[in-house]
Amino acid sequence: MIKLLPHIEPDQYVYSSLASLPIGIKPLMVFQEKEGTTYILKLSDAEVLGVKYTQKWCWISLGYHSDLEMTGLTAAISKILGNEKIPCNIVAAFHHDHIFVPFEMAQRACS
Question: pLDDT per residue over 2-56, tens digit each?
Fold first, then answer.
């Protein structure tokens, strides 16, 4: 059995689609889609920029060192959270997987 070792990061985050970011704002993630660029920003940075958002998200980083070619892990996590009615957005990075859940559901997501 894999121990996921979830760690709740302390800040709140928001998703936004912006044309560009001012110098000094460092997004957690940037993803270029056909329709525009998606940014995951700290809530504090989004508020400074006046970015509108609909949901505050919590970043849960999995301490388990994942492999990009591993199969089934993110599907299993998504299914467990879905069964608990916890929305999630999963980002697979080189070393770890990261899950974004509504901020107020973070503790439930990790239990």
Answer: 688 899 999 999 999 988 888 889 999 999 999 999 999 999 999 999 998 999 9
| pTM of the entire predicted model | 0.89
Classify residue 43 as left (phi > 0), alpha (psi -120 to 50) or beta.
alpha
Q: Give CA–CA dist 34/6, Å, rounded.
A: 32
H/E stretch holding 21 reads: none
Residue-wise over 53-85: b if at least 16 C-beta within 10 A, else e? Answer: eeeebbbbbbeeebeeeeeebbeebbeebeeee
10 membership: H or E segment, kind and range: strand 6-18
